[in-house]
Amino acid sequence: MPEYSSAPQDRDRNFDDLTQRFRKTIYDSPRGALRLAALKQDFTDFSLPQKGMRVLDLGAGQGQFALWLAQQGAQLHLCDVSSQMLEQAKQSFAAAALPLQTRHCAVQDIDDHLPGQFDLVLNHAVLEWLADPMAALHTLCSKVAKDGTLSLMFYNLHGHRWRQLMIGRVHSPDSANQRLRAEGNSPGIPLDPLLVEQQLNQNGFEVLRWRGIRCIYDHMHQKIRERVGEADLTKSDLEFGLMEPYRQLGRYVHFLAKRRP
Question: CA quadruple 41, 47, 51, 57: dihedral positive or negative?
Answer without folding.
Answer: negative
